[in-house]
Amino acid sequence: MKAAPFAYVRPGSVTEVLSELSRDGAKVIAGGQSLVPVLAMRLAQPTTLVDINAVEELHTLRTELSGVRLGAAVRQRTAQRDPAIAEVPLLGMALPWIGHREIRSRGTICGSLAHADPAAELPAVAICLEATLTIASPKGERTVDAVDFFTAAMTTTVQPEELITSVYFPRATETQGFGFAEIARRHGDFALAGVAIRVDAKDRMRPSARITCFGISDIPRVRDVSEQLSDALSKDGPDAPEARLRTALAAAAEELAADVVDTGGDDHGSQAYRRQLITALASRELARAYAKAVRASSHTDEEKA
Amino acid sequence: MSTPRTVSHTGHDDLVAVEFTVNGTTVSLKVPARMTLSDALRDNLGLTGTHIGCEHGVCGMCTILIDGDASRACLLFACQLDGAQITTVEGLGKPDDLHPLQESFGRHHGLQCGFCTPGFLMSSYDLLDHEPDIRREDLPEELSGVICRCTGYRNIIDAVDDVATNHRDGLPGPKNCGQRTLTGRSPVGSTAAADESTAASDTVQDSAPEKISMPSGEPTIAIDVTTLLESPPQDVARVFANIQLLARCLPGAELTEELGGNWYRGRARVALGPIKLSFNGFAHLLEHKSDRMHVLGQAKDTGGGRAQAEIHLLAVPEGTGTRLQAEARVYLVGRIAGFGRSLAGDVSRRMFEDFAKAVDQAARGEEPEVGSKPPSAFGILVGAMRDRIRSVRDLRRKAPGRQANNPHEER
């Protein structure tokens, strides 16, 4: 189907974008990879589309003191190719899962966050890594932690007259390991269930671990699972084989799944099925992420020695 | 990546100006903001190789390259592409010089119904261009952005893997990117959004153009034919001198106005079965001598198609008669370009044969038959079909046993 008619404007500065957004029914378009299908199906009929692609500063991707900042118009594929992505390994792991190459060529990082699809990868990554979003409005700028940003399915704290200008991901430390996995009917489709994981093995027997699950509720669900991981480690110690650790984590993962999966399910997977997926993915990826964190921190130890 | 120019607030009934490059040709368009790139490519520029399936980014039929990266043309509004370099499947290869991917798809039978082929070609081009070291086992996942309704994935994977294996050091670039004329299709049957738009470039004026400039790319049809006429050169020269008479020798053609300075207005009608074309346009004689002519022609079909032609005619003595030689480069754009290439060539060649016969008649002082009953291409087509049937028959005759089983073929 075709989009309903709309007015169009492509301003050259953030100030102009904000003044255009003050019109009733205006909507930002960056990559459009989530928005255009919605327009094509006439699920949305904004009066004006404000295209932000001519705003030079929104295309910047730069490494800052302790992390990486990505402007609102930075495309997912541009980010994948940028060497700075190595500073944020979990983002690098998640990006290939977003749609297909054809989608990532145009889709933007901030656009995916703004769209806040419950089955999307980037909101989960942003929450897991404690990213922060910078939002501009006619009154000035504000910063929001990702964990407070998503309020409901496809709903965020961004107001109609506001514009997300950038997202900031903290740089990974030398003792961190990450995990990412999802299950979809076909690669690139919306996830039935997925997990994003960050483990810090500075203290090997008492690591800190954080998991975000998506596709299983109206917003990504984040949990601190440090205690469960420490418990699992208490049996075999930090050098246990990955498979054994995974088994040791099974009960904790099942409990986690029961806690976070509250979707009613759909044609492609019931609530029970999604719980099974989360159980399997969480235990496997948590064990892997821990192993990576241990390897990473022992490299650092060797370097220091 | 190119940053587009700014656009001030444009009302939802207004058109947005956009300029981008498609397969090496710069294009300026005015489109409704809501018009997708896929529609603009197909309807405004006549590039119907980009297919449209789901129109919301799931099926991948409309995959094209933007600044070298594969993208969904249905998930982009054409007005957003300002300053972009676009490559469509038309830019990938030429009929006689296919891109290795196209060649491989054919060899491995990776086409089946062909509907998804443009999407697969452009998606796999992007993949191999950026990841020449791709492993075969990763291909299904990496090519998952395009759906084949025939489920012919096995052959498609074979085709892409073959090209990957043979081009680890780099995939050859698109082979058909050069200046050419791009004109839209007729709005009949197209989308509402297409009807609202106008192509700002390359529209044929109703007043005579200042000059006819031929596209530099490969012509749709190239003709080089020689016919022997019974009439001696001096009689043929008399026909050459009389432009009105010469025009009457052309099947279906008619000169309607002499504009001076070797410019003529005219029309030509061609009917091929249900297809009826009526061209109105201009001819410009760059060279007009008793034994040679160099003509440029440009015409618009009422159905939205467009034809341009460059013709060299040469009449040289041979024995007591004349050898008439014609070289023509014909460019067809729009609906008419959808004709089977060989059929268009066959028709054109037969037209020339009829033309040569008519010149011979005119040289003898008779009224050329062909000019008196336009549109005569109906007969031309029958002639072309007859030739084809004959050549098929000749082939069959070579197969032993055929003849006896089918006595009707023996006449």
Helix/strand layout:
The complex is a heterodimer of chains A (305) and B (411).
Chain A (H helix, E strand, L loop, with lengths): L6 E4 L3 H8 L4 E4 L5 H6 L7 E4 L9 E4 L2 E5 L4 H6 L7 H6 L6 H4 L4 H7 L5 H8 L3 E6 L2 E6 H4 E3 L2 E2 L6 E8 L5 E8 L9 E8 L7 E7 L6 E4 L1 H11 L5 H19 L10 H34 L1
Parallel strand pairs in A: 1-3, 2-3
Antiparallel strand pairs in A: 4-5, 5-10, 6-7, 6-10, 8-9, 11-12, 12-13, 13-14
Helix pairs in contact in A: 9-10, 10-11
Chain B lengths: L6 E4 L4 E8 L2 E8 L4 H8 L18 E4 L2 E4 L12 E3 L12 H8 L9 H14 L8 H4 L10 H14 L25 H5 L1 E2 L21 E9 L3 H9 L1 H6 L4 E8 L2 E10 L2 E14 L3 E10 L4 E13 L2 E13 L7 H23 L5 H4 L4 H22 L3 H4 L6
Parallel strand pairs in B: 2-6
Antiparallel strand pairs in B: 2-3, 3-7, 4-5, 4-6, 8-14, 9-10, 10-11, 11-12, 12-13, 13-14
Helix pairs in contact in B: 2-5, 7-9, 9-11
Describe this structure in words.
The complex is a heterodimer of chains A (305) and B (411). In chain A, a hairpin with a 6-residue loop joins strand 13 and strand 14 (221-224). Chain A is an alpha+beta fold and 305 residues long. The model of chain A has no long low-confidence stretch (mean pLDDT 94). Chain A contains 11 helices and 14 strands. Chain A is globular and about 65 Å long. In chain A, the strands form 4 sheets. In chain A, strands 4-5-10-6-7 form a 5-stranded antiparallel β-sheet. Chain A has a 4-stranded antiparallel β-sheet with strand order 11-12-13-14, sandwiched between helices. With 411 residues, chain B is an alpha+beta fold. Chain B contains 12 helices and 14 strands. In chain B, the strands form 2 sheets. Chain B has a 7-stranded antiparallel β-sheet. The model of chain B is unreliable at 187-192, 199-205, 371-381 and 400-411 (pLDDT under 50). Strand 1 (7-10) of chain A pairs antiparallel with strand 1 of chain B, so a sheet runs across the interface.
